[in-house]
Design goal:
By secondary structure, the chain is mainly alpha-helical. It has helices at residues 15-54, 62-93, 99-112, 119-141, 144-175, 181-213, 216-229, 238-255, 262-282, 286-307, 317-334, 341-362, 370-382, and strands spanning 386-395, 398-405. α7 (216-229) runs antiparallel to α8 and α11 (317-334) packs antiparallel against α12. The chain starts with 14 loop residues before the first helix and ends with a strand.
Length: 407
Amino acid sequence: MEERSLRITGTDKTFFSKITKTLTKMLIPTKIGINGMLISIKRNNVLKAFEGYQNSNENYNQKEAEAKYDAAYEVYLEALDKYVMDSIYKKVRNNTASEFEKEALSKYYEVTSLKEKEFIEYKNRKQKYLLELDNDGIQLSGKEKLIARYNEFYVSKMDVLYKSILKNYSIKLADAANSYEPEKEVVYTKIFHTLEEYIQNILTLKIKLQKDTKDSNISDVMKEYENYETYTVGKLDTKDNIEKNVVLLSISRKLFTHSLPLIVAIQCYEKLLKDARILVQDTKIAAKREKAYAMLINLFEDYNIKLLSTKVYWENAKDREEFKAFWNQYKEVSKLKETNFIEYVRQKEVLFIKNDMKKIETSKTKTDYSKLLKYYKRKLIDYGAMRELKNSYISQGNYKKKMKEVA
């Protein structure tokens, strides 16, 4: 795709520059008209090629259909890129652009700035940007037949682009395994932002189209999507954002299994566990701390039961054996679910707390969890899983308390 410089130059006040500026303003509508007509032709060609590729079978050369589709798609993107260069840029330069056009050009600059340092992301993000730009215009046109045809193509292509973007982030996260924590935090943020962007803009459209396509994958995520919707209203606090990201990860396990493989999903869950632990120990108001703690317990269950239990290959044999021991304990506790639900909940919570305490105490984390460990011990005492021996010894004239786990 042809690349051109979009640098905006200062305004020259000479007589000849004023004449040039006036002529450019007069020519802009013509340029928009020409580009609009070309885009319409190229769009129609790519839709025909897409439909031909989708309907290809043994009686038709599928490779030939795919090649035609790829070629038509490339030409279509070039036409969209030319529209940004020849029309929107000139209107912004001549102060005749609308707020929408100004924002569109600003986003274009943001995408193109990735080219030198993040070429793979730039390549995917630029395609995504150009498709979104054309899609906005099509949806506003009110042409129902065109909208219906375009939606199928748009969702198909966006699925490919989002998967590629997330796969690139997965690779980055693997590369950043031994990097500084801030570098990994940036990747985590991008992953969650991209997942939410997909759910808001693409999944909603797929659900709308599902009435006709009966896509089983969409049916599987409907419950999680309805759960996600509860976090789209009102202002979210830290606890709400953690819960929302848990839902996003749950949806990703169904839609992006290969783009966000299990090892990456585990890292994302561990990041959320860290955030949740810090929230519990830093929250001062008791009622809010209890809500944060309840969320942390739910997160333990999602992480251990829904995620780690599906893990087949373990890099560390010791970790595998420790999880097996935990899993066997969990299965024993689960037997109480039908006969004594309250006791089941209590024992499950105790199991999760002890398991997390062990992980914290044996981990090499630099985070200070001393307040959280104290909170955990208080919970175990309340549940009768640990007893407190008061006045067990005296140090510097002050009575100290010693907590000892019940055998």
